[in-house]
Specification:
Helix content is 68%, strand content 6%. It contains three helices and two strands; from the N terminus they run αββαα. The protein has a two-stranded antiparallel ribbon. A hairpin with a 3-residue loop joins strand 1 (27-28) and strand 2. Helix 1 packs antiparallel against helix 2 (34-56). The protein is elongated, with a radius of gyration of 17 Å. This is DUF3311 domain-containing protein. Keywords: Membrane, Transmembrane, Transmembrane helix.
Length: 68
Amino acid sequence: MQAVVWFLVATLIVLHQDVWFWDSTTMVFGIVPIGLLWHMGISLAAGITWWLATQYCWPADLEAEDRS
């Protein structure tokens, strides 16, 4: 699972460089610029990736030290 999380992080780094939307005047739903919507999606994906990292990649021995 650690490899999956690292892959997701690398993918988010690449997708964050959204040069294809810099000059776009496209509006989604008539009110949201496409670049803003893209960054909202990246932010949600980053939050999900961070959640996966803490659930499946966090060292268990750190939790044991905290409780004693």
